[in-house]
What we know:
Rossmann fold, 9-stranded mixed sheet, 347 residues
Amino acid sequence: MKKYKIMVGIFGIESFTTYLINILRSKHFSITALWDKDLATASNLAQKLSIPFYSDDYDEVIIRKDIDLIIVFTAPHFLIPISTRAVSIGKHVICNFCASPDRLEMSGIMEAGEYYPQLLSMPFNPYRFDDSITLLRDHLDDVGDPLYIRVTLSCHTFVSNSRYDWKCETSMGGGVLNIHASHIIDIVGYIIAGKPVKVFGSLLRQKVVHSDTMATFEMVMDTDLHVFVTISAFLESKVSNLEFIVSGSRGYLSLRGNNLFRWIYGESEETCLSRRCVRTDSEEFNLCLSNMTNSLYDMFIYNEEQRKITYQANENIPNFIDMGNTSAVINAIRMSDNTRRFLNVEY
Length: 347
């Protein structure tokens, strides 16, 4: 068993932060600092979980020498400067997958990740660590050459009688296109090893918020595969409904909820490849966090001479380049909604 501890700074306090800290501590990670924009919130959680340092000044946490890895789950207007600054001074970074509408900001974070390839710069897409998605990818060859993909996601509404935050503002990175479509675009590219070259999109907005609450778009991939996606955020339910279908030359794979089915031409019925109990969105997210943490420690190598932790590149892990490319696709979809025509994606 490896003896070294990886020292972690946490940025942003969310409903899952306590869970994340507990599973990190169980996997040879030590939490040494905590940041939140509200100092009282940071102080309360730091005392509760015995974290030695907390602050509402993110630079105070980033520059600490006892931090190897920072984990950032914040709104985009905090996430991008924190992540870019951290990578530029030699910290490993994990952040939530963010599709910022600001192209200049995205180019900055992409350059930081590209300039320091020895550092982990991973945007966290929960679908990358979802067991059902992994199984779907493993069985892709069963159905032959992919002909088209259809994805439908119905999820919880952003609109609340008690809260109006950045998720309700497109200009701040909110809306289903920025938040949910970014995950789907990334995972489609991951499953079929390709990227979109042309898109056509249409967005729907509710009057009470300044962000899109429904998005439907078509992507033409560089392999000439067509992908059709519909996302809506109208549900009051805490359980999202995801359907992911890959239709191939020999049959199809259908992920419905947490259950994966396969049908091959000539068979009389579908074969169930996996069946899981229904989980709430928060339970599903926590499970993906746990899967990510289980594989995270083995991504690092400790150099005894330099007393430095380096990252082993892994093709299954997204990076800031992937996040920037996804942002370019989303910008093209948004422009397509305005022009009502297919547009090329400008990477």
